[in-house]
Each structure stands twice: as structure tokens, then as C-alpha cells.
Amino acid sequence: MTGFGRRLVAAVDRFGPLCAGIDPHPGLIAEWGLTDDADGLARFCAAAVEALAGHVAVVKPQAAFFERHGSRGIAVLERTLADLAGTGTLSLLDVKRGDIGSTMDGYADAYLGVGAAVAADAITVSPYLGFGSLEPAFRAAEEADRGVFVLARTSNPEGGSVQLASADGRTVAQAMVDGAAGRNTGAAPLGGVGVVVGATHDHGLQLGALNGAVLAPGLGAQGATPRDVAERFAGLSGLVLPAASRSILKAGPGVAALRSAAEAQRDELAAALTALR
To answer: Which neighbouring-strand residues pair with 214?
Structure first.
């Protein structure tokens, strides 16, 4: 899976390492003075895309905040992803899908396949029905030059009860990282299977063989600093995509203020990561 990896490296080289979230939750929509409906959602996303596209490497819409508005919300999500396409900024849809057999085939068709109805450059997936259950997503992503980010060690406290359990002498989280590394073997400049590892705590994972990207949520409002990110992912073979949402979106609704917040976060990250190389 080299197509997405190549595009991601190019985007980070051009725009820096930040992944900026679009999380239009009800409280933030209200702070922006918008109505909590599909029309307010559309205005929110239009401003975010105008501010971020062509200025950061990756934009990550959170699917849940679109789905809560039903079919009209999904239509806004489709339009948001379409508006990001071709800007040089990649879309990473945070949808955390995971299932087995024909059901996983359906999710892969919806988000990753050639001609996907809700097409993103990459999506997040949940491997907790077994890493192998994600094969339809890997296959569809490879065929369409898209990417997949597998949950490994998430930042929520509840995740440890599953992710830190033992599996063949490794933690479950490490087994997910190793599975992703196996998919990325030999890919250049980077494989298309990434992992999700929270930036808010020491993860304890061996990432030296990943040859892929780590999506690292938790920057900004959740407490992780650029220096935390640089230190916690210093041994990574690949690249880290620190993700921030609220710390950027709270600067809205003005497009210029949103863009300025994102660029400041982006530049601070780049400096921290460069300093510890």
C-alpha cells in the first residue's frame, strides 16, 4: 500500500505535520452562533474547509457529529470530503468501522473503494474483532490508493482494559502495531496502514518497524503539548500526525482566525519535532 503513503509524505512535506479535526459538536456549533441542524453544520464545515484546506496536511472530520443529523448530515459530510479533494490537504474520516465478512466489505465499499459513496483519503478502523477482519478495508484501500488507520493504544482510560491485555507475549496494542508493520513491509516512502496512538500518555509501544503513520490524537485541549508528541514518538519508523480539534476550532467562526490558530499549532509542532530529531 504505497499510494496513500506517498501522498501523505508529500502533504506533510508541503504543509507540516498537523492533522486538524472538524468536530462540529453541539456546544461548539452554539459557540459559533449557528443552529444545531444540517444548515448550521454546513456553514460550520464550509468555514473550516475554507480555513484549513491547502494550509494543513490532513483534515479529520468526526463522522458521529454528521450522523446525528441523519441523511442531511451525511450529505454535508459527503460535500465536506469532496471540497477537500484536490486541495493538497488529505481527508481522514474518523469513523472507526470494524466488522467481519460481508459487513466489513460493505464498510470498505462505502468509504474506501474506487467510486466510494462517502470517499475519504483514509479512515480509522477498529481491529477488535481481530486484525484479520480488516482485510476488506486493506484491500479496498490499496486498490484505490487510500489509507487505513488501525486503533492501537487510544487515549481514553477505558481502552487499557482491552489494549493492554496480553496476546502471545505482547499487549493487544502492540499486536495491532505489528500487524500494521507487516502490511507496510517494503513500502516506500511509507506504507498505507497507520495506527492510532494517543499522545496524552506514554504508550509503551515499539514503533520502530511500523513504516507507516501514527495518528496521535490529544494535542491541545486534551493536554498533550508539541514537546510531548516529539518525545513520545521519537522512535517511530514513519511519521506522526498529531491531531488537534478544539484548540483550533474554538478560534472560529472567522476563517482568518481559524487559519491562524491552525498555522500556529502546525508551526509549533514542526519546531518541536525538528528539535528532537
So the answer is: 195, 240
